[in-house]
Amino acid sequence: MSRLQHHADGADAAPAVFAAVDIGASSGRVMLGRITLQGGVQLETVHRFPNGVVEIDGGLRWNFDALFAEVLEGLRTAATVAAGQGETVAGIGIDTWAVDYGLVDASGNLAAQPFSYRDGRSSDAVEPVHRTLDPERLYATTGLQFLQFNTIYQLATEEGLDGVQALLIPDLIAFLLTGARRTEATNASTTGLFDAVAGEWATEFFTALGLPDGLFPPLIQPGEAYGTLLPAIAGRLGLPSATPVVAVGSHDTASAVAAVPAAADDDGGFAYISSGTWSLVGLELKHPVLTAASREANFTNERGVDGTIRYLRNMGGLWLLSECQRTWAAEGFRPELSTLLAAAAALPGGGPQINADDPSFIAPDNMPERIRAAVRSAGGVLTDDPAAITRCIMDSLAAGYARTLADAERLADRSVDVVHVVGGGSQNALLCQLTANATRRPVIAGPVEATALGNVLVQARAAGAVAGGLADLRAIVAAGSSLTRYEPADLPVTTSRK
To answer: Based on the domain organization, do 230 and 310 belong to the same domain?
Structure first.
């Protein structure tokens, strides 16, 4: 089957484009994606906006009202840009971070601004949940990595859940656009309340924890439509009310992994690192790994597009560096990131490292001092030189990636030949080279916009603009992306390939 298809009435219809709403923990954007005749995807950013946790009502929350206003502004701009080029917005897809949710009553009102996973409220709920549901039983059903902010622990802190529904953040946005209440499956798999084998809600866990039936809406799979735009929303956006809002891999990592430009003959023999605020490091499998050894290694089994399993560990990421930059900026030190990384690269290897996954790094605070304190507690010494702290972060992340991938290969009985780094971290040449050195594997870096590409391609496939399985979607990404290959240090350092 050809990867590109044309509608029967394509000669008369306006060219179709797809709007991708892609929101991370620190920023968001709305992009237009066009399927080109050359077999690639052309992306155009039409709106960017900041995001971040704020102190509201005594907790760290998301200012969701402001966030949704930015989404509407972005979609309005997307409609204007598309119309100006004689195009039609054929669909809207939404991806965000995982685990967080808003509580919506029967009238569709949001009870409060949603809590952020960076708030510490759920840490005290872990022990009570584990008294009710043994961790071994939890893992044998959900296959989910233990993280203190998983949805299951957040919900255990809530009171008065009768009469409301929990909508994960992308589903909440889709609800406000369409009026339809659904839970997209890749994100549902991050809640701790999802059966990794059956692909359904683990209803016995809701009962055991006293959570109401129907707390989450029914599941929807990537490629299915939530519905079409509410008339009032369509009018505000300047789009037809028939415009569909399509479920994509709404957990941003699911969309990113769908766009990993792995060759079809890799047949799963690749690893991926979705590198951004967090690092999602793992393999793509056909079946979950629910063994005791996998639980002890704290690996997660999350759903991917087309029913795949994202077998990974959620690790610390470039949040460490961005928080350092925020602290340094407040002190008057504002170097360009490229300058900072070049200075770090000039330092010798073998310096101090930290455990980038330590919970002490989750909340925003003085990150440089926390990193130095972690080094001191391990008996090391780290100066307050920003270049040295940056090198410590890069070395620590690369070493953590190598350990995680070695564990993943062992636990899944899978051999990895190449490591794909996608997302913002793929632009970080120092991190990519250190990762190649640490893993002793070639690293292929790019695309930066993997999440948006995965979002657009799932929409395009649902609309019939492209066809095929994940291998076909990935071939489209590879055909249209400039990728950089990093070899381990004792081999030629970098080459580029199209």
So the answer is: no
Helix axes 367-377, 319-330, angle to 10 degrees: 120
Query: DSSP assignment of 184-216, as one string?
Result: EHHHHTTSS-EETTTTEE-HHHHHHTTPPTTSS
Contact status, residue 126 vs residue 148, Cβ threshold 8 Å: yes
Rounded Cα distance, 117 and 365, in Å? 15
Query: Which pair of tokens denotes residue 420?
Result: 């794909």
372-390 per-position pLDDT tens digit: 999 999 999 999 999 999 9
Strands 309-316 and 244-246, sheet pairing: unpaired
DSSP 385: -
- DSSP symbol at 116: P
Does residue 303 share a domain with residue 241? Answer: no
**2 found inside a domain:** no
Q: 46-93: per-residue pLDDT in tens? A: 999 999 999 999 999 999 999 999 999 999 999 999 999 999 999 999
Can you say whether the dihedral through the CA atoms of 120, 356, 284, 462 is positive or negative? Answer: positive
- pTM to 2 decimals? 0.90
Which residues carry out catalysis?
252
